From TrEMBL:
Source organism (scientific name): Listeria grandensis FSL F6-0971
Domain N-acetylmuramoyl-L-alanine amidase: 20-148
Name recorded for this polypeptide: N-acetylmuramoyl-L-alanine amidase
GO process annotations (BP): cell wall organization; peptidoglycan catabolic process; peptidoglycan turnover
Enzyme Commission no: 3.5.1.28
Length: 172
């Protein structure tokens, strides 16, 4: 059974992977507790899966500059996006609207990221820990600059917005 957000459009990621290569595998019973936020280091939303042909990597979701959410790997699988955190996390890639050095993302991307994490929290009936890639287990600012200089300072705002929604739901 595939577990994906109803906010997301299925994307035929499998067609981008060479036969015999894997970019996801079993969670082996690990409970999902964390959302890892990434930036794509790309300004063309459609190019992201193509990168994964050359790199052994993947993510559960991608969000484009217009706010479109695509699912690449079902949540029931461990995507290859954050080293030691893969087993218990959901990876979300945010497309950039500018290139280096700023790697900015659009406000529509941020809004959709908040909505997607709110949906994940609701479906799993818990508040997920939200971290940037460099703060996920097995990573650091020395190993990756992801989620980039535009998203890193906004992570606290993203967490606050997600949690405000969750509080409204709890209080009714």
């Amino acid at each position: 059974m595939s577990t994906i957000s109803p906010l997301a459009t299925p994307y035929e990621f499998e067609s981008f992977v060479n036969p015999g290569e894997e970019r996801w595998d079993s969670r082996e019973g690990a409970e999902i507790t964390t959302v890892v936020v990434h930036h794509m280091a790309k300004t063309e939303f459609d190019e992201v899966p193509e990168v994964w042909r050359e790199r052994e990597a993947s993510a559960h979701y991608g969000i484009g500059p217009s706010g479109e959410i695509r699912v690449y790997v079902g949540e029931e699988h461990r995507a290859w996006h954050a080293r030691a955190a893969n087993a218990y996390s959901i990876g979300i890639e945010c497309c950039n609207v500018t290139e280096a050095p700023d790697w900015e993302v659009s406000e529509k991307t941020i809004d959709s990221l908040v909505l997607l994490i709110q949906d994940i929290n609701a479906r799993y009936d818990r508040k997920m820990r939200i971290v940037g890639h460099q703060c996920a287990e097995g990573n650091s600012a020395e190993t990756t600059q992801c989620p980039g200089p535009s998203l890193i300072p906004r992570l606290a705002e993203i967490v606050r917005r997600v949690n405000e929604y969750d509080e409204k739901i709890i209080k009714g």
